[in-house]
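REQUEST FORM: STRUCTURE PREDICTION
Request ID: SP-0412
Submitted by: Lab K.M.
Chain count: 1
Length (residues): 537
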Amino acid sequence: MSVVESVFLSKLGKNSQGCVFRGHADSRWKLHSAATRRLIRYFNQDESVMEEFFFAQMHLVYLRTVLIDPAREFGFDVVDGRKMSDLQLLARLQGYGAATVLLHFSRNPLAALWNACEENDLDGKVVFLDLEDREHFSPVSSEEAEVTSEELLFQLTERGSHAYIGATDVEHGSKGNHCRDDFWVTGWPLIPAAAQRSIEIRSEDKERIRRELCEMYGYLDAAPGVDVQRFSVTNGAQFQLPMIDDPEFSQLQGNQCYVKGDYLGAISHYDKGIACAPDVGGLYFSRGNAKAEAGNYKGAWADYDAAIRCEEKERGDGEGMYVTFDKHLWRVFFNRGNAKTVLGQLDCALADYDEAIRLAQRFGVRYSWFFLNRANVKQLAQDFHGALKDYDEAIRIGNIDARFNKGNALVMIGRFDEALQCYETSVNDGDNRAGVLCNRKGVEGILSKLGSRGYKVRPPRFKEQAERLMVEVSVKTSPSKVFTEFYYFLGMIGNTGNAGTAVTVKAGEMPIGKGLPGGAGYQSWPGFIVLVRGEEW
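STATUS: Completed
RESULT:
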């Protein structure tokens, strides 16, 4: 019995019928596509990057920016006068050694064995997949083969499967380079271990196996064409990926830093994206959010201004990279309102919240925190009646913080019975936070002092000695019962944090970036004092 038969063919068994095979010269290699390996190398060989939220989208930008678009510019997508689809072009480049998202397999197990027997000092292995396993694999239809790579891979990710395409489906794209036994399987997301089988090839057997494959089966290395080969080989997984000057890739890197709380790193990547595409509003918006989280509110304000200017341009001429940003423009105004609030520009903040609410309602969006934040700013501006109206709307939509803040607003204008009702309703609904209990006790104390007597309330104002807002209440009493009492209240709950980033899409193509979470909430405001004086009127 030959070595090929004893160490390999005899182990395949009957269950290998209908499988496709791939040889790894090093048995430690994982079933990662060359694109995945190249991106990992781009991030200093840190494999944990695969777990990052935006790593899948980076594949799409890499394929388009580094491989597909340049290959089309060089004319590598035309064979025999016919233009290839993205998938056909990737399969062609894959055959010449380019680092694509596809994994090359063969129906011929001996072809995989030949590749597994390279590098004689290492153990190798042959990996095989059962393409009839419909839980993990599905063929690409002729219609699907014609869509862009971004559309196809997005669809695959959505349905959680791996697609495969054969040489006969690639048609003219494989002419002269591949046989009908060749198959390409998408390698991202990673193919689960449950869908893989393998046979180990010992290093000491490799030389004899290759010799037998040459003598008994006529195996020789192929020699592909020159121009496409040079382009593909220089874009192989073994070559360092150059800096990708693509605004979407920079945004994805920035987003990746943002979700980890590295806001300065995010800003740095957004800077690069803006340098490549200074008219893209989504990049300014993302950078503004990162600056806000880092505490640079003036810088955030400036970036939100720039995002709005870009959007106005895009709506004017109908062009632009982020064609759906208009639907999310309310986010920019809302977040700018937050920045202006922190900087004390209350009237400007209110104008932004008004515009955010108006724009959002055009698309059926109505969040309770729209009204909570606007009410808070109105209360700071001492428009208490306007604040109460917004708090009621926020409560109606389901915001529990709004009820506490509404109670505070009622205290400041002397409507103590209603304030007590707000606090008690919060407690009855299960809100036992210290602020609710403390302020309820304060109102109860005030009401016990007032009794049924008449009282007057002065508008809230800052007292220098108190260093916080004070509400003065004058209670009618006899000269013999003059008194002065202080009641301390915890301040209102701060504004809800910034709205998350909008979904960004390239004009005419599929989404390449997922939205980011909203920002952290803003700090609550200092408490206030109610001074109750029993006086003779």
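NOTES: Confidence is low (pLDDT under 50) at residues 172-177, 222-226, 317-324, 505-513.
Reviewed by: T.R.
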